[in-house]
Structure formats: C-alpha cells, structure tokens
Amino acid sequence: xxxxxxxxxxxxxxxxxxxxxxxxxxxxxxxxxxxxxxxxxxxxxxxxxxxxxxxxxxxxxxxxxxxxxxxxxxxxxxxxxxxxxxxxxxxxxxxxxxxxxxxxxxxxxxxxxxxxxxxxxxxxxxxxxxxxxxxxxxxxxxxxxxxxxxxxxxxxxxxxxxxxxxxxxxxxxxxxxxxxxxxxxxxxxxxxxxxxxxxxxxxxxxxxxxxxxxxxxxxxxxxxxxxxxxxxxxxxxxxxxxxxxxxxxxxxxxxxxxxxxxxxxxxxxxxxxxxxxxxxxxxxxxxxxxxxxxxxxxxxxxxxxxxxxxxxxxxxxxxxxxxxxxxxxxxxxxxxxxxxxxxxxxxxxxxxxxxxxxxxxxxxxxxxxxxxxxxxxxxxxxxxxxxxxxxxxxxxxxxxxxxxxxxxxxxxxxxxxxxxxxxxxxxxxxxxxxxxxxxxxxxxxxxxxxxxxxxxxxxxxxxxxxxxxxxxxxxxxxxxxxxxxxxxxxxxxxxxxxxxxxxxxxxxxxxxxxxxxxxxxxxxxxxxxxxxxxxxxxxxxxxxxxxxxxxxxxxxxxxxxxxxxxxxxxxxxxx
Length: 575
Prior knowledge:
Helix 7 (about 320-345) packs antiparallel against helix 8 (about 355-375). The protein starts with a helix and ends with a strand. Mean pLDDT is about 85; it is low at about 1-10 and about 25-85. It has 13 helices and 19 strands. By secondary structure, it is of the alpha+beta class. It has 3 domains: about 1-35; about 45-70 and about 95-130 and about 140-200 and about 230-265 and about 475-575, Hypothetical protein YwqG fold; about 290-465, no CATH class. The strands form 6 sheets. Strands 1, 2, 3, 6, 7, 8, 9 and 16 form an 8-stranded antiparallel β-sheet that branches. The radius of gyration is 32 Å and the shape is elongated. The protein has helices spanning about 1-10, 10-35, 45-60, 260-265, 285-300, 310-320, 320-345, 355-375, 380-410, 420-435, 470-480, 490-500, 555-560, and strands spanning about 65, 100-105, 115-120, 130-135, 145, 145-155, 170-175, 190-195, 235-245, 250, 255, 435-440, 445-450, 450, 455-460, 510, 530-535, 550-555, 570-575.
C-alpha cells in the first residue's frame, strides 16, 4: 500500500512534465501559423535564409511564358484536366516557389486575340450573368453591375503557382466596384472561374462610369457635351511572366520586387525616371482638336466675380506712403534679379536655362507693375480700375465665344480619327490665339502685423487653345487600338512608352507569391492565405486606387484547391 501511494505521489509531477512537453512541441507550430498570415509583419525572419534569398533574387530574371497558338477562347486543355493541379492536398500553410507578373504588353500585340488582358470587356459564357451586387456604402442605389478588371488564361499559369493549387484550365475573371470609398467588403468585387470563356460580352445598360478610384468619386468635366463617360477601362493585353517568390529586408521593411523592376520586366527598354506624365503635345487628330477647343470654351464660360475690396484694404492703399513704397519695392526687386542674373551668368553652370528664363520674366513683371502704379498715381484711380476690370474681362470672354463655338461645330463635322498635322492645328488655333486680355488684380487679402498686405499681380489671358486635359488618356486609347495606333506620331510614342513601362512605386500587377504591400509587409515563409491577385495603381490603365494604392485579393488554400472563390477576401492599401 505504501509502494502504491509512493507511485501515485509522483503522478502530478508526471502530468506536469507531459504538459510542458506538449507546450514545447505545439507552441512553435502555433507561432509559425500566426506569422504565416498574409499582410502581417515578420520581425524575426532567419537572417541566413533572408540573405540567401536576396542573393538569388538579385541574379534571377523573370521568365516569360510563351503564348500558346490557337484561339484564346478555346480551352488549351480538356475540361477534365481543370482540377489536376488542385488535386494536391492543401495543408494549413502553403510554401510558394513562384509568382506571376501581369506585364502589360509594350506595344500590345494586336494581330492575334489576347489570352489574358486587363480592362476592356470580359468573354463570358452565354449562360453566365454579369456579376452584380448591392453596395454596402450606397445601398439606396440598389443592385448594380460591377466593373470588369481582368481576365487571365489559367492554362498559361505555371504548375508551381500557389503551391500547385488552383485551376490550370479555363479562365479567371475579376470584377470590382471602384465607386465605393473603401471597397473592401464582399459586395465590392467578384472572382469567377469559367471553363469556356464565350464571346465578348457587352456591358449592361445600367453599368455606371468607371473612374480612377479616388475617394471623391468620378469626375468627367473635361468631356465635351454629348460624349458619354467611359463605362470600361481600356483593354490592354498582358504577358504572364514567372518570377521567383523571394523577398528581402531593407530599412525595416520586407520588399518583394527587385529595384527598378520595370527595367527587368521590359528587358532593358527605356523606363521613365519620374512619375510625371510626358509634356503636353499639340493635337494630332480632329478628336484632339475638339477636346482642346472645348477646354478653351469651358475656360471662357467661367464666372468672373466682381472685385471685393475691404474697407481695410482701401484705407491702407490710401495712406500717403503706400503707393511710393510699392513703386520702390518693384524697382528694388527688378534690380536685385538683374544683378543675380549677371552674377550667375559669369559662373558656369550656376543656373539652368529654365531658371534664367524665370528670372527674366520676373524682371519684366516688376517693371510693368512699376509703370502701372506710376500711371495710376492715386489710390482712387487704382480702386476704380480694380472695380471696373471684371466687367471688361467678361465682355472679352463673350467676344471670343461666338467664333469659338463656330469652330467647334465645324470640327465636329470631320471624322474625329482623321489625322491633323501640326501646320493645320496652328492655322486653326491662330484664329483666336492673338486675342489677349490683361489686367492687374489685387492678391488675396491677408494681414501682416495687423495691417492688410497690399500687393498686385498681372493677370493675362489669351484665346490660345491649350493641349487637351485628357491628352494622355486619348493617346493611350489610340495606342491599344490596332486600327488607330498609327495615328500617333512616332515622337509622341517615344515620349509615352517609357512612362507606360514604369511601375508606380515599383509595384507590379501580380498573382501568387508575396505581396508588395504599402501598409503591411509580406511574411517570409509558408502562408495560410494565398495572393490570388495584386492589382496596383497604373497610369496607363487610369487606375489610381484610393491614394495611389493597390488591391490585394486573398484566398485560403482549401478553397483554391476546391475551386471555390466565394470566400475570397480583398484589402485596399494606400497612402
């Protein structure tokens, strides 16, 4: 009895030891599973593994999947093979070897139907309805159709993608509702897989306009009257480019895309150094000319408010010393800028031609202002001038509107896609370009040391039509159109192509692998959620999600293996 009691006395210790052993085995697994969730930051990635990944990433270039011949609407494999890649048994966490980049073709190969593309219209089976949803942000608008974003040929996806899960036949289609402030709910997008793509589907009649995704909503005030707002983005074919799924750590962030990734994706082609769009060019089609004249017309119809001079402004201007002080200030500033120009001209490379031209123009402004103040002489004369000049500007606008509207009507009778030479545009624009209106205006009133600031600036307007505000959009529309691409002058193509190749913030469109996050970092290692799509902001597509952000679409491995896309989750990350 004493022996039995002695053994049972050790029982708590034995149970305690088994509990510690269980925690020792299971706790690291639990921690790894938590760290493998997409979108969370990994602060403890093994340095040796990370350094090895960096070395391999720096010397590995992406591999392009060659397009298979034949009709892109016909499945490249029998439908029975669609689930073969999904036959792999998914685990709770999947390690990925590759990622696929959706690289816009530059230039688009339009001689044959594309197998995968962004924008445009989807190829849907006849029996498949266009996806619709009720927006949680605007439920009062009722059910409405989503906008088509991308269609990807699954037969062109590498077997290794998503840990060998997911379809390798048929097509994946992505729809989205960008007209929400923060479209992250399941009502804001739809992912579909179809075995047979069908013919190109016309959009539903109640499909609203697309826009750039900014929170303020779409704005098409630069469209001429009668031109409908676009209900689709331009169709741009893409190549599927396989890249190793690797990441590196820099300055406390986990980065995925190699530096200057566009130069790798486009094999050394010229890439624009800045995000800024190319400089505006003169219209080269009659459509462009119509847009340019419409922009001028809109400017001439703007309301010119009457002058509002506060009593404090009138009193300060009427002080005996105010006008002489303004004249002295103009003389001193003109003299300072002349001396600065002379000094800089003696030191080679001290000022750029643009900086020198700015100083020269400023000197002219101060000299003209000095002459105007001397001509006015008194505060009463200046006040009378300021109050009368808005009416004079309105009359100048009315005088130009009648001939301008006649020009717009005449251009509207021409084929909008007929070429317009630079000489023809100059002759057309010269009709109104020489008509000018100049007046002096008081700057926005503000107080300095309790007294209103007295300052004037020269306000000049001309009848010259500026390049169309939508010139970059109109040019991109021509570039992806096989019939009309030849309308773009070669020098304009040379300006735009480097800009369109550029990846905004070095962030590509991507499927699978680690994500290029803005507000979150990729977690190095196996993942419990797989990146189905990464759709980045892209000026060539007129995609500016949120504030220059990106959409990320996530799916669980078991759902991907089963071909179930109903549980896909979407994140929007932006600045």
